[in-house]
Design goal:
With about 160 residues, the protein is mainly alpha-helical. It contains 6 helices and no strands. The chain is flat.
Length: about 160
């Protein structure tokens, strides 16, 4: 027997770790691809009705609409901040008062409905002011928005 032991290979654990990392990366990419392609049911759902109607408007119309409704939106933001504080206090209250929480939830629902009504009125006024040709072009853009789906990617046929 030889009294001199073989020198240890210090690079071997490093090579094994790199190999494992590369294998995990490949498996992750393959699994992600399979899940993305297999689960296309979510891509078949059209976008929300309101967002689709808004996105199909010409850019200048969207900008004007945002400007006209920004005051209402800012007011709603300030109200939500106060409502979150009130909700936090209501949730901490002992004994718990579900009626107080229900009132806060209803206030939020009412504020959301008011914003929705304002948006719908603004949208309808704009569509009503369009010429027949502009409205036809808008309908075409709306179809394109729906085809792209929720995430803005074109759907595969």
């Amino acid at each position: 027997m030889n009294a001199d032991p073989k020198p240890k290979r210090r690079w071997m654990p490093l090579v094994l770790a790199v190999s494992l990392a590369v294998n995990l990366l490949i498996v992750g990419v393959a699994l992600g691809t399979v899940l993305r392609l297999k689960g296309e049911d979510h891509a078949k759902a059209p976008p929300g009705f309101g967002p689709a109607l808004y996105r199909a408007l010409p850019k200048d119309e969207r900008k004007a609409m945002r400007g006209e409704l920004s005051g209402l939106h800012k007011k709603g933001s300030k109200g939500r901040t106060q409502d979150f504080e009130a909700m936090s206090q209501a949730l901490r209250r002992v004994p718990f008062d579900p009626v107080a929480v229900e009132v806060l939830l209803q206030q939020q629902a009412d504020a959301t409905a008011a914003l929705q009504e304002a948006l719908q009125s603004q949208w309808l006024a704009r569509v009503t002011a369009m010429s027949d040709g502009e409205r036809q072009a808008y309908a075409d853009r709306l179809q394109d928005v729906v085809k792209r789906g929720k995430h803005g990617h074109k759907k595969k046929d």
